[in-house]
Amino acid sequence: MNYIIRKMQPSEYPILREFLYEAIYQPDDSEPLPRSILNDPALEMYIKDFGSLADDHCLCAEVSGSIVGAVWVRNIAGYGSIDEKTPECAISLFREFRGKGIGTALLIEMLNYLKEKGYEKVSLSVQKENYAVKMYQNAGFKTLSETEEELIMVADLKSDPAISSD
After folding, report:
1. Measured between alpha carbons, how far is 153 from 144 in angstroms, rounded to an integer?
2. Where are the alpha helices (DSSP H) in 67-142?
3. 159 with 122: CB under 8 angstroms?
4. What domains does the chain contain, in order, with CATH numbers?
């Protein structure tokens, strides 16, 4: 599948609401969570006024002129926050574009982007049952802590000599 990865333009930031919903791990497709869940302040902080904070960065994947996925970081006190210096990462693709390597390419591109910008680490939170855990591990994320249901993972951008999709 042909796709391009590029910086998301501020005029496109409203689509992050759709990607935030897609990023919520829902193992049972037969009973999806209501979209109103995005109004919960604990979730809304991932996208509210995106672009207004110094550490807001977003890349997107585009197929045939349409955005099909996004990876974004913010330095917020979110589910995967580890300290005040480390931005937290969120990534998601529309379902029909998953499993094609686009998510991995997006993630690697963001890790390289953050490394070039001088960030030392990036963190995230993921449900243990989420198939994306393997992608994060393959991209260099290590488990920092865990609860019964989720992992807090960190990628050390300083120690990795080169981040690649290999």
Report:
1. 5
2. 102-116, 132-138
3. no
4. 4-25+34-156 (3.40.630.30)
Please tell me the distance from the alpha carbon of residue 48 to that of residue 45, in angstroms, as a whole number: 5
Task: Find the length of the chain.
Answer: 166
Residue identified by tokens 């497709």 is 29
Q: Is 71 exposed, middle or buried (0-12, 13-18, 19+ CB in 10 A)?
A: buried
Chain position carrying tokens 């686009």? 102
Whether the full predicted model's pTM is greater than 0.90, yes or no, is yes
Nearest Cα to 50, choosing from 17, 18, 24, 82? 17
**Residues 81, 29, 16, 59: what is their CA dihedral angle, to the nearest 10 degrees?**
80
Amino acid of residue 113: Y
Long-range contacts from 30-33, C-beta under 8 angstroms, 24+ separation = none
pLDDT tens by residue, 96-146: 999 999 999 999 999 999 999 999 999 999 999 999 999 999 999 999 999
Q: What are phi and psi of 119, to 5 degrees?
A: -70, 145
